[in-house]
């Protein structure tokens, strides 16, 4: 698969004078920077544990229209150079110039441009598009291009491993090098002989699952080493491998271990000290199924498992039973996912070189072994006009610019191994994609789960990939086809015709979709005609990636192919602080649907208060579906996500990074059906996640019901209080029927709950109610009983300070990080609750004796100590008996996921960010943090 010796000469012969570049976004004689109003900002990031500053760079320069979030993430993630040194980048101009000028220089070096003037236009157009957030390269480009570091541009890698110890050790090493650079990789282990096969020495083989342990431990260690983001990996096994049942059960069995260890008192939180004893947690697992297997499942036939050494039948199993085990495991812990081997290879442009056996961690990059793919994503909202039109001409030209730049990068890029270097340069895989599809559909007044929405999405995707391959064919005429094209001309042309036929079969609804589909058909026809004459520059052109961190860089409301997460979002403010706002897509959609401005304001205000549109004043019920989201009151049904994937899949070279969320009540049979429907609908890969199925995940509802240990610890504590009340026979002072109260939602470790505290009119705590766990669960019952006991005791005169002294620092699980800025870490739920009550109801002097302070008080005390002066606490503000319940401060909400939960009362299974502690939000098949831009493995 390596680059042949005549590649350079072939490129020279193919050069037809270089590309002529036309202006699209820029003006002749005006630099893109001169059209923008720039402003200076301060970026200060605080530590979630104690409020201390963990990053500070003041005076950074960004366009005025960039959000605070985008500014913070680009400054902390992408600016190079040590903070505080002259070498540190401080302006977006420096970052964009570092990348764009490198691309321009390489384009001139390798003969992409006809004249220096064309190179100038290319540089200006790329600059304009980046600073105006029209598109973004994947993160490794921003990390590495134009720096002294290796010029790594790819985020996605596929490795290979053969049936030998040397090859397995190479796999460990290569994977580690990729993780070190912050990228992810995938590998198919099906060449490794099964545990039921013999070694040459006569012993029995270990099997692929055993070797997964070593790779998993390596990934976990490198993840903990503080790289750009945690290690991301995919492990795949073919369905006909004799060890397939063990592979399927691997992670589900480990989840059982987590339950048992946690219930025994071990720290099994994500990132906990004891979670490292659990194996296989650093990889996504997928089973590669064939059409033969799926037919056997459908018809209830037996299925043969084949040896790796000689292909002989090792075992025969019931296909339907094996498929049920696959669905059962996915239902229990979300792993393994499924990949449809024959569909993948039916759309393979390079089948003469070899089969596609694996994918990257998120399953969007599918190609040859030992290759890589660099990604870039377009912001679709930048092409949506105020009148609902789609700017087709600019979209096509933008695709041309991006594809040209991405291909240039392969010419100068560095890669972690020699094999990947040779193969990537020989096949030049690209992954153009998009973000903000969900926002575009909503703004256009189209439900995500509708045929009209799917057809517009399919048409846009067809146009993007069609224009990309047409540009690739033009590049082949200038700098030559990819080196592997001659060998693969027949399969490549066949796949191009399949894409074109799918575009011709589009059935658009509405004038916008019709125009987009018509242009897509035109692009495919022109591109195929040109490609059949002179070949294509790239064996792959498009994928749909999660667009995690770069989605924030472009200020996108939605990631990849996803719908909107929710109708409300979290927004950071200039100068600090945050606020909850209704997505700006909502009023735009309402106007497109014909609502008057007064109606738009009323509906938007309702959404801001309730988080959904049901019963919004003046909103027609037939328009509710336009505002359906991934979470909340009107969540899109799982099949709606699958149908959207099926609509766009025929127009993607690779596949789609997306996890289909299913409700907790979903059955194993529904998972089976979902995996079957994915096969019938022509998907290449599919993964599901059933709410609360992973006990090792923080903040999951299921885990709140499980721990019996905390409940047992709480019950005896109330008994002495009751005995004390009986013994001294004090007079009970009951609360009046109408009394002031406040409710605080809280999270401690994996447990989420609500604390309602009511006080006497003359101020003083008199009643406490705790909700922890589902209604009807044992833990919820114990909490109710405990609340009543404490409340009665308070009314009989037991001082709150006594409770705080007794329960503060009590240790039991769940424990750990909280979402309260005043109490960042807690030893237990009891520890948190009574610290919170102390902060809310005890005077400063009593709290000072106990060592309980707010974050502001701790900061002020520290400043006073540094300045050598005495700290004087502020006088408490008078509290009115009729004052409304105190709302949870905006600062306690750190992400859009938490905003939604604060309104709906539902809990997302999203993990907490390893870097800043903010609750992450879904982005494709991984998660991304709105606080600092960190991802769980995807660019």
Automatic annotation (TrEMBL):
> Which residue numbers delimit the TSCPD domain?
736-839
Quote the catalytic activity from the record: a 2'-deoxyribonucleoside 5'-diphosphate + [thioredoxin]-disulfide + H2O = a ribonucleoside 5'-diphosphate + [thioredoxin]-dithiol
A Pfam family matched in the record: TSCPD
Superkingdom, natural source: Bacteria
Q: Which GO terms describe its biological process?
A: DNA biosynthetic process
Name the Gene3D superfamilies on file: 3.20.70.20
Name of the molecule in the record: Vitamin B12-dependent ribonucleotide reductase
The organism is Catellatospora bangladeshensis
């Amino acid at each position: 698969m390596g680059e042949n010796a005549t590649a350079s000469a072939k490129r020279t012969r193919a050069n037809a004078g270089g590309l002529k570049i036309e202006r699209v976004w820029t003006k002749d004689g005006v630099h893109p920077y001169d059209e923008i109003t720039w402003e200076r900002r301060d970026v200060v990031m605080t530590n979630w544990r104690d409020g201390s500053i963990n990053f500070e760079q003041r005076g950074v320069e960004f366009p005025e229209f960039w959000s605070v979030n985008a500014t913070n993430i680009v400054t902390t993630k992408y600016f190079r150079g040590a903070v505080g040194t002259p070498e540190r980048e401080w302006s977006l101009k420096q970052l964009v110039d570092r990348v764009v000028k490198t691309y321009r220089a390489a384009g001139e070096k390798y003969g992409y441009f006809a004249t220096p003037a064309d190179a100038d236009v290319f540089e200006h157009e790329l600059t304009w598009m980046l600073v105006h957030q029209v598109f973004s390269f994947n993160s490794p480009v921003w990390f590495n291009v134009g720096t002294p570091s290796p010029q790594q541009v790819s985020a996605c890698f596929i490795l290979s491993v053969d049936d030998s110890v040397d090859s397995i050790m190479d796999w460990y090493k290569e994977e580690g090098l990729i993780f070190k650079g912050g990228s992810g990789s995938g590998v198919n282990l099906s060449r490794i002989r099964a545990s039921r096969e013999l070694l040459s020495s006569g012993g029995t083989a270990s099997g692929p699952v055993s070797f997964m342990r070593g790779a998993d431990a390596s990934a976990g260690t490198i993840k903990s080493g503080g790289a750009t983001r945690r290690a991301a990996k995919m492990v795949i096994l073919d369905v006909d491998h004799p060890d397939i049942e063990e592979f399927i059960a691997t992670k589900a069995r480990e989840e059982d271990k987590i339950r048992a260890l946690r219930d025994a008192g071990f720290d099994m939180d994500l990132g906990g000290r004891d979670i490292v004893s659990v194996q296989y947690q650093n990889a996504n697992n997928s089973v590669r199924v064939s059409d033969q297997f799926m037919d056997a499942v459908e018809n209830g036939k037996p299925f043969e498992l084949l040896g790796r050494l000689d292909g002989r039948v090792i075992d025969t199993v019931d296909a339907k039973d094996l498929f049920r085990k696959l669905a059962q495991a996915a239902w229990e812990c979300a792993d393994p996912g499924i990949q449809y081997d024959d569909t993948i290879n039916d759309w393979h442009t390079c089948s003469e070189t070899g089969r596609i056996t694996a994918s990257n961690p998120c399953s969007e990059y599918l190609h040859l072994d030992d290759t890589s793919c660099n990604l870039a994503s377009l912001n679709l909202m930048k092409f949506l006009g105020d009148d609902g039109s789609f700017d087709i001409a600019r979209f096509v030209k933008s695709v041309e610019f991006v594809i040209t730049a991405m291909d240039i990068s392969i010419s100068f890029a560095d890669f972690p191994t020699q094999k990947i270097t040779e193969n990537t340069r020989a096949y030049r895989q690209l992954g153009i994609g998009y973000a903000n599809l969900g926002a575009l559909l909503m703004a256009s007044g189209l439900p995500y789960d509708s045929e009209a929405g799917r057809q517009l999405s399919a048409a846009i995707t067809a146009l993007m990939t069609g224009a990309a391959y047409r540009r690739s064919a033009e590049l082949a005429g200038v700098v030559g086809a990819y080196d592997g094209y001659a060998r693969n001309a027949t399969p490549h042309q066949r796949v191009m015709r399949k894409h074109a036929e799918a575009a011709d079969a589009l059935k658009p609804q509405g004038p916008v979709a019709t125009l987009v589909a018509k242009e897509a058909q035109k692009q495919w026809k022109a591109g195929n005609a040109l490609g059949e004459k002179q070949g294509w520059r790239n064996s792959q052109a498009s994928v749909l990636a999660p667009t995690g961190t770069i989605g924030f860089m472009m200020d996108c409301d939605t990631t990849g192919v996803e719908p909107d997460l929710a109708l409300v979002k979290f927004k950071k403010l200039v100068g600090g602080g945050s606020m909850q706002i209704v997505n700006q897509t909502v009023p735009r959609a309402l106007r497109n649907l014909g609502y008057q401005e007064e109606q738009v304001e009323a509906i938007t205000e309702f959404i801001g208060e309730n988080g959904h549109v049901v019963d919004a004043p003046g909103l027609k019920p037939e328009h509710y579906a336009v505002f359906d989201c991934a979470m909340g009151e009107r969540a899109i049904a799982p099949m709606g996500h699958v149908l959207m994937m099926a609509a766009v899949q025929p127009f993607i070279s690779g596949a789609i990074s997306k996890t289909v969320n299913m409700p907790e009540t979903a059955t194993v049979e529904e998972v089976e059906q979902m995996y079957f429907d994915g096969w019938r609908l022509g998907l290449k890969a599919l993964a599901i996640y059933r709410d609360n199925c992973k006990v090792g995940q923080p903040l999951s509802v299921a885990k709140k019901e499980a721990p019996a240990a905390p409940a047992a610890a709480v019950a005896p504590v109330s008994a002495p209080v009751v005995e004390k009340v009986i013994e001294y026979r004090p007079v009970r002072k009951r609360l009046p029927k109408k009394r002031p109260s406040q409710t605080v939602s809280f999270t401690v470790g994996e447990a989420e709950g609500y604390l309602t505290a009511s006080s006497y009119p003359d101020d003083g705590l008199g009643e406490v109610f705790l909700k922890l766990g589902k209604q009807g669960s044992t833990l919820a019952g114990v909490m109710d009983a405990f609340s009543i006991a404490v409340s009665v005791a308070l009314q009989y005169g037991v001082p709150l300070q006594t409770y705080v002294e007794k329960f503060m620092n009590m240790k039991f699980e769940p424990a750990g990080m909280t979402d309260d800025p005043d109490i960042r870490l807690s030893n237990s739920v009891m520890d948190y609750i009574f610290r919170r009550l102390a902060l809310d109801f005890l005077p400063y002097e009593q709290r000072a004796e106990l060592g309980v302070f707010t974050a502001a008080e701790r900061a002020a005390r520290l400043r006073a100590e540094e300045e050598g002066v005495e700290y004087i606490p502020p006088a408490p503000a008078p509290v009115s008996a009729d004052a409304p319940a105190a709302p949870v401060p905006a600062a306690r909400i750190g992400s859009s996921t938490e905003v939604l939960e604060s309104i709906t009362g539902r809990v997302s299974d999203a993990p907490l960010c390893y870097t800043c502690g903010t609750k992450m939000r879904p982005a494709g098949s991984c998660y991304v943090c709105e606080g600092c831009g960190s991802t769980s493995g995807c660019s």
